[in-house]
Amino acid sequence: MTRTVDADSSSSDKRLSGDRRMRPRIAFICVENSCRSQMAEAFARIHGGARIDASSAGSAPSGKINPTAIQVMGELGYDLSAHESESVDRLPDSGLDAIVSMGCGDACPTVPADRRIEWDIPDPKHMPLEEFRTVRAQIETRVKHIVSELLETAP
Q1: What is the CATH number of the domain that holds 141?
Q2: Which range of residues forms the domain containing residue 104?
Q3: Model confidence over 100-116: pLDDT tens digits?
Q4: With contact defined as beta carbons under 8 Å apart, do 68 and 83 qualify?
């Protein structure tokens, strides 16, 4: 299930530079910032390239990237080992076009963004490899969609 909530769109910070708007900014949040949000950030970078600014964070970061997440993203040619598990406290106080939370429910703090989206995606942390890959595929499908939406609406 995907739930979208439009936040206050009267935000004065649209990151204008002259007459040109900078690339859309999206952040992905889960509890540990070691699996789901890390893979989502990677897919946003893969599918959005330099046209989008993607980050991820956790409400209770583990401090490390899950080895299986590194493995399954490596299968696609993406090196997740260069990422770091970070806290939501490191996210910007303003200027995010979208924030996507995955499975942290009430543990996900409110982070200011133009759009707030909740994805009901299971934590693959203890799943067998094939199930982990299934979750990876679910995340990629959803990330492709949100990145496409953000790029279509960016001036």
Answers
A1: 3.40.50.2300
A2: 2-6+22-153
A3: 999 776 667 678 899 99
A4: no
Q: What's the number of domains the chain is made of?
A: 1
Based on the residue annotation, tell me whether 104 is a catalytic residue of this protein. Answer: yes
Decide: 28 and 102 in contact? Cβ < 8 Å.
yes
| Amino acid at the residue 10 | S
Task: Confirm whether 73 is domain-assigned.
Answer: yes
Candidates 27, 29, 98, 108; catalytic one: 108
pLDDT in tens, 39-96: 999 999 999 999 999 999 998 999 999 999 999 999 999 999 999 999 998 888 788 9
In a domain, 42, yes or no: yes
- The reply to whether 108 belongs to the active site is yes
* 15 within a domain of the structure (yes/no): no
**Catalytic residue, candidates 104, 135, 146, 150:** 104
Q: Which one of the listed residues 30, 80, 113, 143 is annotated catalytic? A: 30
Report the pLDDT value the prediction gives residue 107, as an integer from 0 to 100.
66
Q: Does residue 13 form part of some domain?
A: no
| Tokens linked to 153 | 């609406």
Structure tokens at 121: 């995606």
pLDDT the model gives residue 16: 38
Residue 30 is a catalytic residue: yes
